[in-house]
Amino acid sequence: MAHFYAPVRFKADHVLEFRPTRHTHEWEVTFVFKGPINETNGVIINLLEVKQALDPLVRRIEGTFLNGHAELLAAPPPICVAAEIPTCENLARFFYWYMVAGDHDLVFPDRVVLEQVRVQLEELGRPANGERGYAIVDVSDFLPELLRRRHLQVAR
């Protein structure tokens, strides 16, 4: 088994209870897939297909205010809390949910799983002392029914 890392980046604003002033971050979301290397094409999962599944979502949130965002609100509870409290942790859960159960056509190859989602932020405009940090959500943290729901959708 091998790992494949697929990062996407976007810029968006948010506020938090402990930092109520609106501020902008560059967010990097990295999807970590685990599975066998396909002997025919040499990859675990096709990066172009992963990007194709993510690009519409990333375009809808690029340059926006994440608090109360319709994309985040559309997720089921407790994932939709990312619209109320858009932290790295909650956004990692949201992106994990989106890849496993969201509205896209990506089908994971046999024996390939989304093992982790890492959300990293860097504050823009304050490089010397700005915020930097990240959170990781992995498969053991996630709700099994969302995984089952995705497998049912793929089977249809």
Uncertain ranges: 150-156
Total number of helices: 5
- Give, in spatial order, the strands making up the sheet with the most strands: 1-2-3-4
Mean pLDDT: 88
**Integer-rounded radius of gyration:** 16 Å
Shape assignment = elongated
Helix/strand order: EEHHHHEEH
Q: Main β-sheet: number of strands, strand sense, barrel status?
A: 4 strands, antiparallel
Estimate the strand proportion.
25-35%
| Ends distance | 28 Å
Given the helix and strand composition, which structural class is it?
alpha+beta
Helix content: 25-40%
**What is the tally of beta strands?**
4
In short:
The protein has helices at residues 47-61, 70-73, 81-84, 88-101, 144-155, and strands spanning 2-16, 19-35, 113-123, 132-138.
Topology:
Layout: E1 2-16, E2 19-35, H1 47-61, H2 70-73, H3 81-84, H4 88-101, E3 113-123, E4 132-138, H5 144-155
Antiparallel strand pairs: 1-2, 2-3, 3-4
Entry keywords:
156 residues; alpha+beta; 32% strand; disordered C terminus
Report on this structure.
By secondary structure, the chain is an alpha+beta fold. 31% of the residues lie in helices and 32% in strands. The chain has five helices and four strands, in the order ββααααββα. A hairpin with a 2-residue loop joins β1 and β2 (19-35). The radius of gyration is 16 Å and the shape is elongated.
